[in-house]
Amino acid sequence: MLPEETIDKSVFEEIPTEKIYSENAIRVGTFLAGPLVAGYCISENFKVFNDLEKAKKTWLFTILLSVLIIVLACLLPENIPSFIFPIIYVSITSYFLKTYQEKEIQKHLSNGGETHGGWRVFVIGLLSVLVLFSVVLSFVMLADYV
């Protein structure tokens, strides 16, 4: 009976042509490079899943979270361990992935869809770090000026 289910599935289910970001790639990229990686990858997945409204909301939430993290990092005492921040935003990312994309990602993969490679997430991570560094440097320079 299992082969019939496979045949039925392959006849009636469309094989995805676009690639998505896997949950693990998003989590690792987020841990290593920050919340902008999560925002970009999750947003791109929503676009593949044809949910443009959630893609926009993802960017809004990502920007707000990034600003909050920068402000918290400036206000918290220096004796707070720095690894707390990656743990916090990976936890938030994992929650949103599980809540909003886990089923779609599994469906995509089970229908034969592919994921982007790790190098692509690595490059996105590097760009994310550059953007975040530029923003923080701008705030520091602005604070010195004022």
UniProtKB/TrEMBL annotation:
Protein name: DUF4190 domain-containing protein
Keyword Transmembrane helix: yes
Record keyword Transmembrane present: yes
Residues annotated as transmembrane: 59-77, 83-100, 121-143
Keywords assigned: Membrane, Transmembrane, Transmembrane helix
The species this protein was found in: Flavobacterium hungaricum
